[in-house]
Amino acid sequence: MLGAGHDVTGLVRRPEHVSRLQAMGATGVQMDLTRATPAELTRVLHGADAMVFAAGSSYDSTAKESIAINLDAAVASIDAAVEARLTHVAMISAHRVDEDFGDDQTMTYLRAKRAADAHLRSQTRLRWTIVRPDALSDEEPTGHVQVGELVPEGLLPRADLATVVTAALTRPGANAQFEVIGGSTPIEEAVLEATRGL
Questions:
Q1: Phi and psi (nearest 5°) for 176?
Q2: SS in 3 state form for 142-188?
Q3: Is the whole model's pTM more than 0.85, yes or no?
């Protein structure tokens, strides 16, 4: 997003990540989303146009941790975005969230993500995009992806995910929910098709 000329503020839990954001040209704000009050969340979002909710726990987190960040913090952030009158919220969800599989920890993770996605879809006062990537990698970006309502398992470079989200936030289109992995379609073309509202 910085590369596209947007002002970016990132909320991070660890103080050392604030300086990392600042070095990249963004504004860093230290905040624990699992403990922030609605007023604090609304205040930090005030004046923004859009929000990307990218926080999340892993599959092997405890049930308490998973629900706290993947559901409770996500819902609180969405509500704060509505209160702050943002126009667009993008949610980084997860691949195969609508399925039930794995052990109890995985099931808790999936159900928390699923419920957060549903809460975002219920919003009528802002535009929303739900992006559901599979496994993320630190490989060099390719600029190409595969998107769809359902896609097979696959890897996606983190930088390509960032480009997907940026494209979704900066292009006019309908509310959209899609899975994404690495592929052969240029990102701009893939996102345009995914958000066309067909």
A1: -150, 150
A2: CCEEEEECCCCCCEEEHHHHHHHHHHHHHCCCCCEEEEEEECCEEHH
A3: yes
In order of 136, 142, 143, 169, 182, the CA distances from 185 in angstroms are 18, 10, 8, 19, 9
d(CA 95, CA 84): 29
In the DSSP assignment, the letter for residue 38 is H
Consecutive H or E run containing 123 = none
Structure-block tokens of residue 4: 């596209």
DSSP 48-89: -SEEEE-----TTS-HHHHHIIIIIIHHHHHHHHHHTT-SEE
Q: What is the pLDDT of residues 156-195, one digit of tens each?
A: 999 999 999 999 998 877 899 999 999 999 999 999 999 8
- The number of helix segments (H) and strand segments (E) in the chain equals 7, 10
Q: Is 142 exposed, middle or buried (0-12, 13-18, 19+ CB in 10 A)?
A: middle
Q: Note the pLDDT tens digit of each residue in 17-55.
A: 999 999 999 999 999 999 999 999 999 999 999 999 999
What's the one-letter identity of residue 191? V
The β-bridge partners of 179 are 132, 148
